[in-house]
Design brief:
Helix 7 runs antiparallel to helix 16, helix 14 (365-382) packs antiparallel against helix 15 and helix 14 runs antiparallel to helix 17 (457-471). By secondary structure, the chain is mainly alpha-helical. Helices cover 77% and strands 0% of the residues. The two termini are 57 Å apart. It has one domain: Growth Hormone, Chain: A.
Length: 510
């Protein structure tokens, strides 16, 4: 029996139509997959994607760096005084009842200074609390400094390592270590465990910072473009510093101590997956011979640029462990107030880094950094004059903006100095730059507690202000640094041939 088609023409249906439709679906799926694959390959060769990945890594690293600032001082005090946590202490002494007030004035009208038992107890407890908080400043300072000290030690190893295996593997290693550190912070309940978590973060930060900046310097060979790119990346750093303290203070106040660290660990996991898919960590051998770490570390112009980074960041590093405790002691500041006190500095740092990335190239990076150090000194002198949290807004904002001026100008300046005076391989010079940054954040918190205890909070800031004023004139030497012509011509040759061909090949593969 013959099967007819629906039209009644007596012909059998054509099964090729179904095969054709199936093939079309298969071809569409294959085409979509090919398009997606082509886009991923194009993104992998994109300089902008590398810039975004580096900025995210710096953002998360600095969120973890600063999220502990409003958490750790009060958390350590509370675990040592479980029956009398810090927030249970009244900010004002008990007020006298009318009967007690009348009892303090004798019949002859002569004023007699008396104090109720409750008032005497409040002042005694306040004095004891002040003593314990000052003692705790030393411990907090050492904990905060441990990250920078470890990073300081790791940098001279990470820099040369990037010359041998490239930037992507150390960058991914930095994510893994930071993730572990965040988890330890989330569940640590003792000073020792929290100290180890902070120190472990230093290794991860070294890998991320040195590899990230080196990767940007390698991809952005034009000096102006490099300055803009590094300004954007430092904007990620600034955003981390911006979000960290208020995020930590608010989450600790209303959710709990572990909450901010668990959120950070989830964000870090996302960044790690992005690196794994897009950067595809693998060994990459550098084409040109890198300068030795000794040659870079003994270059006076590199030392001047690195020193500016150290002194610019030392002031804010001293404030991190000491300012929250000073606010608790003098203003009775709450957790969230301690967190948001660094907010103006973070916002203005974000503005400063993005503004002076391109602007520093126009007016002279040496001049922008010099002005930045002067502004830092002036702002540090104003901070001890504050009597409320509102009075801290302007000096903190000026401090953050000025640090942004110095960082966004001196980081690309280091790459420029290597280009004109050595060879265009950047791992070691950004290891030195990161050492300079860490030196400020190691010396600052480590000395902060001791200086507050010995000479007081006010004189500590006067001292670091004088150092900033004294160092600023040295930046005039960076106005026109001398070049080494034979090395400069070699670098120009490499840029016009080897480096161009490398990126051209990547484009061809896409």
């Amino acid at each position: 029996m013959q099967t007819t088609d629906p039209g009644g023409n007596g012909q059998a249906p054509n099964n090729n139509n179904y095969n054709t439709n199936g093939n079309n679906i298969s071809n569409d799926q294959g085409s979509s997959w090919s398009t997606l694959k082509a886009r991923v390959l194009r993104w992998r060769g994109s300089r902008k994607l590398v810039l975004v990945i580096v900025a995210i890594a710096l953002l998360l690293d600095n969120m973890l760096l600063t999220v502990v600032v409003p958490i750790i001082p009060e958390f350590l005090y509370d675990i040592r005084h479980p029956d009398a946590p810090l927030d249970s202490f009244p900010k004002e002494p008990p007020t006298l009842s009318p009967c007690e007030a009348a009892a303090t004035t004798p019949w002859n009208g002569i004023d007699v200074t008396t104090m109720s038992y409750e008032n005497a107890s409040w002042y005694a407890e306040r004095k004891e609390r002040h003593k314990e908080l000052v003692e705790e400043t030393v411990e907090i300072g050492l904990m905060f400094a441990s990250k920078a000290f470890v990073q300081l030690i790791a940098n001279p190893f990470v820099g040369p390592l990037t010359h041998k295996i490239g930037y992507s593997i150390p960058m991914f290693a930095g994510f893994v270590i930071m993730f572990l550190s965040t988890i330890i912070f989330a569940f640590g309940r003792t000073y020792t465990v929290l100290f180890l978590a902070r120190a472990l973060q230093g290794i991860g930060s070294s890998c991320s910072s040195v590899s990230g900046m080196g990767m940007l310097a390698e991809r952005y060979t034009d000096d102006k473009e490099r300055g803009n790119a590094m300004g954007f990346a430092l904007g990620g750093l600034a955003l981390g510093v911006l979000i960290g303290p208020p995020f930590g203070g608010i989450m600790y106040e209303f959710v709990g101590k572990s909450a901010p660290f668990l959120v950070l660990s989830a964000l870090a996991l996302g960044d790690g997956l992005l690196q794994l898919v897009m950067l595809q960590p693998s060994v990459v051998i550098q084409e040109s011979d890198p300068p030795t770490l000794k040659a870079l570390a003994t270059d006076p112009y590199i030392i001047i640029a690195a020193g500016a980074i150290t002194f610019a960041n030392m002031g804010i590093a001293m404030l991190e462990p000491s300012l929250p405790i000073w606010m608790m002691d003098n203003m009775g500041a709450s957790r969230w107030e301690q967190g948001v006190t660094f907010l103006p500095a973070s916002i203005s740092y974000l503005i400063g880094t993005n503004l002076f990335g391109p602007l520093g190239h126009k007016i002279g990076r040496w001049l922008a950094a010099l002005l930045g150090l002067v502004i830092i000194g002036l702002c540090l002198l104003c901070i001890p004059m504050a009597t409320s949290i509102n009075h801290l807004i302007l000096p903190n904002a000026g401090l953050g903006f000025a640090i942004g001026m110095v960082d966004s100008c001196m980081m690309p300046e280091l790459g420029f100095l290597v280009d004109i005076r050595h060879s265009a391989v950047y791992g070691s010079v950004y290891a030195i730059g990161d050492v300079a940054f860490c030196l400020g954040f190691a010396i600052g918190p480590a000395l902060s507690g001791t200086l507050v205890k010995s000479i007081g909070f006010e004189w500590m800031l006067v001292g670091i202000s004088i150092l900033c004023f004294a160092y600023a004139p040295l930046l005039t030497f960076l106005r026109a640094p001398p070049t080494k012509e034979e090395k400069k011509s070699l670098i120009v040759g490499e840029r016009s041939s080897v480096r161009y061909v490398t990126y051209q090949n990547e484009d061809d593969d896409e």
